[in-house]
Amino acid sequence: MDFVVRNMHTRETDLCDPGTLSPEPQQAVVYETRYGLDLGVALGPVREENRKRYKDRYLLTRIAADDDLETYRRQEERAREAARTCTERVQTHKLDMRVVSAHFTLDASKLLFFFVSDHRVDFRMLVRDLVGIFQTRVELRQIGVRDETRITGGMGICGRRLCCNGISDRLPPVSIRMAKDQNYSLNSMKVSGPCGRLLCCLSYEHQHYQEERRRYPREGSLVEFEEMVFKVQEINILSGQVRISSPEGGWHTIPICAMQRRSGKGGGGGSRRVAEWAVNPQGCPAAAEVISAARTEDGIE
Length: 301
Hints:
Number of strands: 16
CATH class of the largest domain: Alpha Beta
Strand content: 25-35%
Strand order of the largest sheet: 12-11-10-9-16-13
CATH architecture of the largest domain: 2-Layer Sandwich
CATH topology of the largest domain: GMP Synthetase, Chain A, domain 3
Low-confidence stretches: 268-272
Number of helices: 9
Number of domains: 4
Distance between the termini: 70 Å
Shape: elongated
C-alpha cells in the first residue's frame, strides 16, 4: 500500500512506495524525491480517492535513524548560511529575484535555492558563482507565492497553522465564486491569505454550501408572507435564516424551515407579481415568534 510523505523542508507531499517497510504515521523516513535523497514524514496510507492527485511515485528508502535527523539539522544550518550568500550574489548581479530558502539534499549531493520573481530570470552567471563557492551541484527553482508561503509557514487568520504548510499542498483550486457562495466578505484583506491569494480553506466546505443553497431561495426571489409579497435580500446558511423585505421598507428574518417552494414558477403576472416561495410555519416552531411579531407590527392582535 502506497504512503503519503511530506517533505521536511518544502512541505510538499509525495506518493511513495514503501516496499517492505511499514512506517508509522508521523515517523521520519528517508525517500527519493524529485530533488534527490531527502527526509520526510510519513502521513499514512493514501486513500484511493486521493491517489489521482499524484502523478509520480517515489521509493521509500528507509526509516530515518538518529544519524539522519542529525545530518538534516546540520544541513539546514548550512543552508541558511547559503541562502544569505545567494542573496548577496543576487544583489551583486542586480537580478530581479528574491531568495526564499536554500536546501541541501540529505546526501549533500545537491544544493537547491528557491526564489520568487515576477519575470523570467537569466541566472546562469549566478549559478556559476554559487557552484564556485559551494563546490557542489546547484539548482535554482522559481516558485510561486503560494509555494513560498508553504515553505516559510506561518499563522492564518483563524489562529492556526497555514493550511498549505500544515495540512496539504494538494488542495483543489480556489475561486472567488466559493467566497460568494459562502457569503464571505469580498474585502481583499479578509478573503486572502498571507500569500495574497484566496484562502485555501474556502474549498473545505464549498460542496456543503452548494448543496445547502439548493434548499434556499435565490437573492431577489419573491416570497409571499402574511398576504404580502416580499423580496429575498439575503440568505444565511450558517444560521439557517432568510432575510426578506417588503416594498414599503419592512423586513423580517424567516427560518428556512418555514420557507416552502411553490409548485408553479414565479414571475410577472400582469399587475400582480407571483411569488415562487411562501412562508409556511407549519412544522417550524422557530417561525412562530416571527409570525407573531409580524402580526403585531401590522396591528393584528
